[in-house]
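Aim 2 progress update. The chain analyzed this quarter is reproduced below.
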Amino acid sequence: MEYKVTITPQAQSQLIETVNYISEVLLAPETAVKWLDVLEKAIYSLNTMPNRFPLTDEEPWKTRGIRKLIVKGFIVYYLVDDNRNAVFITAVIYGKRNQIAALKQLED
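Predicted structure tokens:
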């Protein structure tokens, strides 16, 4: 069964910010493109068996069903809606960042 993967506007904004940072601040535009390719490939692989990754340990997001996928030092947070065969990417956060503070910024 295939799931439709949707990247929320907030997660899309986080991806753009990270690509811009890698390109403009770190002066590594090729690295930014490669990073985005790897990350998008991992994200869109959630179209099959999206529940294979664990729920996040942090509450209340764990109770809400938020799962996490770790890719290249970043944590991709997402929600699976089995009734609609849909996956919603809610956030993409650098792994060394304070995850609780970043998760509190998630839009409901």
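The radius of gyration is 14 Å. DSSP finds three helices and four strands in the chain. These observations will guide the mutagenesis experiments scheduled for the next reporting period.
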